[in-house]
Amino acid sequence: MFGTYLRRELVNRRKQTIIISIGMALAIGLVILVNSISAGVQGAQASVLQSVYGVGTDITISQAAAAPTAGANPGGQFNFGSGSGATSGGTTTLNQSTLTAGRTQTVFADTALATVQSTSGVSAATATLALTNLTFNGQLPDQNASGASGTTGGQGAAPVAGDTPPTGGPDGAGGSAFDVNSFTVLGLDPSGSSVGPLSAVSLATGRLLTAADVGTDNAVLDSSYATSASLATGGTIDIGGTTFTIVGTVSSTGSDSVTASNVYIPLDVAQTLSSNAGMISNIYVTAASSGSVDSVATALQAALPAATVSTQADLASTVSGSLSTASSLLSNLGTWLSVLVLAAAFLIAILFTISGVTRRTREFGTLKAVGWSNRRIVSQVAGESVVQGLIGGAIGIVVGLVGILIVNIIAPTLSGSAASTTAASGGPGGGGPGGGGFGAAASAVASTTVTLQAPVTIGIILIAVGLAVLGGLLAGAIGGWRAARLRPAEALRSVG
Questions:
Q1: How many CB atoms lie within 10 A of CB 14?
Q2: For 426-462, b where at least 16 C-beta lie within 10 A, e where not — what string?
Q3: Which of 14, 54, 324, 336 could form a disulfide with 200, with the two C-beta atoms 3.0–4.6 Å apart?
Q4: Pair type for strands 201-206 and 218-222
Q5: pLDDT over 70 for what percent of the chain?
Q6: Using CA atoms, how far apart are residues 390 and 28, in angstroms rounded to an integer?
């Protein structure tokens, strides 16, 4: 009886059913499309962050840069004592390498890693030490020969970061000629590649660092840097005055051409060479589940109050470019537009249902006169509204999927960049893939162009069905309540 009556009413009131279904379909289709594109933008942000922070890294821990203390060596400075270099013909030839933490990088005790690993909800964690290798190589006039503040036989210091070399050459006229090269070095746990920077790379040549490389002078190079510096697997590279054997090269798995650092070496070796024994600059953390990231971050912040704890959501806010614009547009205009259209669709459904109930006053009066209860009348009206909502939901799902298909076919490209203080990129002669020069802060900007792909998930479909049912129930409940208030005699008399 219920089904027969419901089907008859829907067929007899086709115009109302069509209007309600179309309104619901457009609203639900828009909600599906906005949610899908939003998921695509989040995926695009993750791909940009991947080149900086690594795949599988849910949380990063660092410490804010501290102001230099009085009398502290600022780094990036070369000190040559008496007898340094070789002097010939009034010119002193000097060569020195230093390995120091970046100026914007604060190191902290590696005991924090044990604290992180013991925190509930942490699946994996690894520590790194971000450093910059600076090499001074050149010829300067001898102090005794030129009368200038010299290097040999004195305590003079070679130019520091940002100095401009004097013009001229080693010609005895007070000139000098020198090069200052820089590249970034990242000390890491060779066995911790499942999280952190090395989780975002692929092997290009040779091999990666393994647990057997702890304490050894072995290095892995970024393939782009290796090419620009004319280095290759099997060769050597000078880091902090120590010769390292190049055992492999790696490349980025994303569309960015460079990885998080130019050179990767074992963490313990990096600590020793840079005089940072027992110190680290970053900890990368993977949570046991995606749903626990925020709670784990809160627990880590409580355990390490002096540290800066950032989640992927925090890092995503640093992404700039058209990707950031798309994210803001979805967060503001897209969300509010979906809410407004959905509210309009619900309102249309309610108004048409109430209007239909008003036109069926005599019908409901007759039904109540023959014994229909208020509950049965409400159920009848609600059932009709839910079916209309489901019809609109089904059409809306199709509309939304078609919209998603169009977006994926067009495949718009978005550009994004994210800055990291874990490392800086510097190629030969102070330049390099990342444009970092001599004395540049230990920071890198990963710029990536990504293709926006709007995914289809079961969750989005379930949301659509839920909204369709909700809209139908809301309209049916209000319309049914109005119908149930009718008294049989008054209803019949009002149209008699």
A1: 9
A2: bbbebbbbbebbbbbebbbbbbbbbebbbeeeeebee
A3: 54
A4: unpaired
A5: 64
A6: 11
Q: Whose structure tokens read 């910059």?
A: 132
Q: How many residues does the chain have?
A: 496
- Please name the residues in contact with 166: beta carbons below 8 A apart, sequence gap of 6 or more: 174, 175, 176
Write out the two tokens for 405. Answer: 């298909």
Cα–Cα distance between 63 and 308 in angstroms, integer? Answer: 5
Which two three-digit tokens encode residue 197?
A: 């920077």
Write out the H or E segment, with its range, that includes residue 357.
helix 335-359
What type of residue is 331? S
Rg, the chain, Cα only: 34
pTM of the model: 0.56
CA dist 436 and 262 (Å) reads 11
Residues 218/266, Cβ–Cβ less than 8 Å: yes
Question: What is the reported pLDDT for 476?
Answer: 77
pLDDT of residue 270: 94
pLDDT at residue number 167:
46
Per-residue tokens: 474: 């809301």
Banded model confidence at residue 140, pLDDT cuts 50, 70, 90: low
Mutual orientation of helices 322-329 and 14-53 as an angle, nearest 10°? 150
For the record, the structure tokens of 366 come out as: 């007759």
Angle at 237 between CA 234 and CA 240, to 5 degrees: 150
For the chain, helix (H) and strand (E) counts, in that order, are 14, 16
Q: φ and ψ at 164, to 5 degrees? A: -105, 125
Identify which of 3-7, 115-119, 422-426, 473-477 has the greatest average pLDDT: 115-119
pLDDT at 298: 92
Q: Who's near 170: CB < 8 A, 6+ residues apart?
A: 89, 90, 91, 139, 140, 141, 176, 177
